Amino acid sequence: MELAEALKLFLSLVLLLQWLFSSSSATFALSQEEEQNIEGVLGDQSHEYKYPFIKRASTFKSPSSSSTSSNGGKHTEYDYIVIGGGTAGCPLAATLSDKFSVLVLERGGVPFDNYNVSYMQNFHLSLADTSPSSASQCFISTDGVFNSRARVLGGGTCINAGFYTRASSSYVKRVGWDPKLVNESYPWIEDRIVHRPKLAPWQRAVRDSLLEVGISPFNGFTYDHKYGTKVGGTIFDDQGRRNTAAELLSSGNPENLTVLIYATVQKIVFDTSGIKPKATGVVFRDENGEYHEALLSTKPGSEVILSSGAIGSPQLLLLSGIGPKADLEKLNIPVVLDNKNVGKNMQDNPLNTVYIPSNKPVQQSLIQTVGVTNMGVYIEASSGFGQSSDSIQRDHGIVSAEIGQLSTIPPKQRTKAAIQAFKDNKQDLPYEAFMGGFILEKLASPKSKGELSLINTSTDDNPSVTFNYFSHPLDLKRCVEGIRVVEKIVKSKPFINYTRLDKASLDRLLNMSVQANVNLIPRHTNDTSSLEQFCKDTVITIWHYHGGCNVGKVVAPDYRVLGVEGLRVVDGSTFSDSPGTNPQATVMMMGRYMGVQILRERLGEAAG
Question: Crossing angle for the helix pair 503-516 and 3-20, nearest 10 degrees?
Answer without folding.
Answer: 60
